[in-house]
Amino acid sequence: MNEQSIANKEAWSYRAYEFWTSNLGVSNKVAKDMIKHPETYLRRHMEFLGDVKEKKIANLLGSCGKKAVPLAILGADVTIVDISEENKKYALEVAKEAGVNLTYILSDFLELNIDEIHNSFDIAYLEGGILHYFLDLNEFSKKTYALLKAGGKLVLNDFHPIRKIFKSRDVFDDNDLEITGNYFEDELKPEGVAYERFFTDDEQKEFPKCLLRYWTMGEIISSFAAAGFIVEKLVEGPRFDSHKNIPGEFTLVASKGNKVEA
Ligand SMILES: C[S@@+](CC[C@H](N)C(=O)[O-])C[C@H]1O[C@@H](n2cnc3c(N)ncnc32)[C@H](O)[C@@H]1O
Ligand 1 pocket, 87 CB below 6 A? Predict the structure, then answer.
């Protein structure tokens, strides 16, 4: 594993199970709620995913299963690839309580052995904080492309790169959006894991840090295009706080051509 993946694995292995249990809820309660209204968990991504019944979906960096289990409830055959044992534990517990199968591959995505699963997924679905975990975006997009069947679809939702220019990169909590950042910055930086802010100041000091590389929109689109993806649409959405006049997220929908890979 490279330096970045080692740091991110350590960060995502620290108190993650505890966080999901207190934030999302204990597995049997969450599962019950997911069964009641699975679409709610998938938000407007449903519109991009389409009918998922009997579709083979790779939910890359799928974390605690909060998207994968609802997809499985809707009839999809879902595989998560994620680096965190704690996330795996929570996701499999929820899947079991929901009465669905979930394949969970515990691996650094960059080290994932795809010999037996290349050209095999209808959809690669990635959402909510993905690309900054990779220093080599071309390697990441190529590997994602290789997993898809000919004609398969990519649905990638992530935080909007515009947040690079703000002092705080958080797009959920109102802040004064002070501009001190550099959109073109290309360094690998230590930062708190996504759920660290839910703990007390003293507890936060104990958290291992992630190592993140933030990308520009141009770099992102160019990388997926270079891998061979045909871009269908790029949809930008507002921030999640009150600054609705500024983009907070984007969704890239793209496909793998119908040419069959060797
Ligand atoms: C912010 S989450 C994205 C999923 C979901 N939106 C969430 O909020 O939990 C990022 C996930 O990426 C995983 N991750 C980070 N680096 C990885 C790597 N190199 N290979 C596989 N998974 C990785 C972490 O364990 C974490 O579950």
Answer: yes
Q: Tell me the per-residue pLDDT of 85-136, one tens digit each, with 9 for 90 and over.
A: 999 999 999 999 999 999 999 999 999 999 888 999 999 999 999 999 999 9
User: Which residue owns the Cα nearest ligand 1 atom 13?
Assistant: 61
Ligand 1 pocket mutation, candidates 3, 63, 156, criterion most atoms within 8 A of CB: 63
- Give residue 261's pLDDT: 52
pLDDT in tens, 173-211: 887 889 999 999 999 999 999 999 999 999 999 999 999
Q: Which domains does the chain have, with CATH numbers?
A: 3-255 (3.40.50.150)
Amino acid at 190: P
The answer to whether the CB of 108 is under 6 A from ligand 1 is yes
DSSP state of 43: T
Which pLDDT belongs to residue 260?
A: 52
Atom of ligand 1 nearest to the CA of 134: 19
Distance between Cα 259 and ligand 1 center (Å): 30
Predicted structure pTM score: 0.96
Query: Are 155 and 126 contacting, i.e. CB atoms less than 8 angstroms apart?
Result: yes
Q: How far is CA 224 from CA 19, 46, 144, 199, 244, in A?
A: 33, 22, 9, 36, 28
